[in-house]
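dude i think i finally got it to work??
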Amino acid sequence: MSKDYIERNNFRIELGKFNKELLRSERRTTGRLDSRFKGIDRDAGGENPDSDPSINAIRPPYTAAFNDYVRRDLGYKTDSEYYILGGGIGRWNYNVDNAYADTSIPMKDAMAKNPYMKIMISCGYYDMATPFFAVEYTVSAMNLDPALRKNISFEYYDAGHMMYIEKNALKKLHDDAANFIQGALRK
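look at this
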């Protein structure tokens, strides 16, 4: 991005604008769920991408696989449409006005009530739906007692929001989850 563009936006670039502007010179956009995915819009103008190229790539195969699984393997038959990744459902309701959901206080309260609770947080480097480093910042701002803070672990993946869509990240997620569960059971 040009220095001028960043300065004109007061150093605070809204995500849609970022996804549109980052590769504008290539006439491409980047994905929200996984910024490694590139999209092609109707034109290179405009403020935001026409759609999310990562959702465009992920939604069809996951929808088809799920529909095949429930019908063929589980024998579940329905005419109801199955929606994946929020398609057709509408906007999420966080029960907050003009803000994001803040689960840090309920999590801190739960950890105080159960000091044996362990939490593993998985972070994808290319995830723009859950901005990278936001969860580390949130956990640090919780001001947890050190005895509780040691119960939270972070794992990092060369992936986006859905680290299981790529084989190496899926294997690491599997191994990390298995090790987390085994470690939680030992202590």
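Residues 35 and 153 are 24 Å apart (CA to CA).
im so relieved honestly
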